[in-house]
């Protein structure tokens, strides 16, 4: 069952849990993530990037026939331009992120408003971003320049009408190359006090669990996970490929990769507290 993320995240924020959002790249990752979600009775958000819209759109629609009662949000991750959002909606996505976070405030707002307008017309939800979540390869002192300003976040959420808002409070995308992140909880608390819509944390992989728990009770209702899924898939595949006979048995390698993803996803469902929510 394909759903937008609006009510799902509102409910999560109210009750103090989060929905993990997994980046998927192919039918194997889609199947692994959906199997765990069904088994744990956890609602699910699947993230696809712009270049993968066609592939993932079709793959998820097909996979959902196996799990007709599983609540799934098919969400465009980091849509950078209006046509990308339109394309995702055309491919059956139930939610889109419009990421104008590197643009000046007024341009970010204008882009986000255009996407909200078209998404509303078809019942699709929208995530915006204010402040800018950088890369784990950047030094934290550099990322500090782009942390979300609570006042700006409040204005942006109200003016844009987004359903949820990604904020920069110390996490980053990819591997944390300068040690684990230290979230700015004073900032996150100030944002959560004023911003009414649920908050989104990007860069979940590698963030210490105790910080994630604190972020969730503070108001984060969606946590994006990409690196952990990729890392698990590649490690599982590699281990099987390097084992006896594995180098010629592609199915065996893919099965091992799926299994590794399954384990990573289970850990995230547990951490986010999203099991038994439907
Ligand atoms: Zn992200």
The CATH topology assignment is TIM Barrel
Please, what is the average pLDDT? 95
The H-and-E topology, N to C, reads as HEHEHEHEHEHHEHEHEHH
Cα-to-Cα separation, first versus last residue: 12 Å
Work out the helicity level.
40-55%
Strand content: 5-15%
Give every kind of bound small molecule, once each. zinc ion
Helix tally equals 11
Please state the overall shape, judged from the principal axes of the Cα atoms: globular
| Name of the CATH first level | Alpha Beta
The count of DSSP E runs of length 2 or more, i.e. the number of strands, is 8
Entry summary:
The protein is of the alpha/beta class and 278 residues long.
Structure description:
This protein has 278 residues and is α/β, with parallel strands linked by helices. The chain has a single domain (6-227), classed as TIM Barrel (Alpha-Beta Barrel), CATH 3.20.20.70. It has helices at residues 6-15, 27-40, 53-63, 82-90, 105-121, 140-143, 150-160, 185-194, 209-218, 227-242, 250-272, and strands at residues 19-23, 44-48, 72-79, 95-98, 125-130, 164-167, 199-201, 220-225. It has an eight-stranded parallel β-barrel, surrounded by nine helices. The longest helix is centred in the last third of the chain and has 23 residues, at 250-272. It binds zinc ion. Zinc ion is lined by residues 78, 133, 173, 202, 224.
Characteristics:
eight-stranded parallel beta barrel, globular, TIM Barrel, single chain, 15% strand, alpha/beta, 278 residues, binds zinc ion
Question: Secondary structure elements and their pairing?
Answer:
Elements: H1 6-15, E1 19-23, H2 27-40, E2 44-48, H3 53-63, E3 72-79, H4 82-90, E4 95-98, H5 105-121, E5 125-130, H6 140-143, H7 150-160, E6 164-167, H8 185-194, E7 199-201, H9 209-218, E8 220-225, H10 227-242, H11 250-272
Parallel strand pairs: 1-2, 1-8, 2-3, 3-4, 4-5, 5-6, 6-7, 7-8
Helix pairs in contact: 2-3, 2-11, 4-5, 7-8, 10-11
The structure holds zinc ion.
The site of zinc ion has 5 residues, from loops.
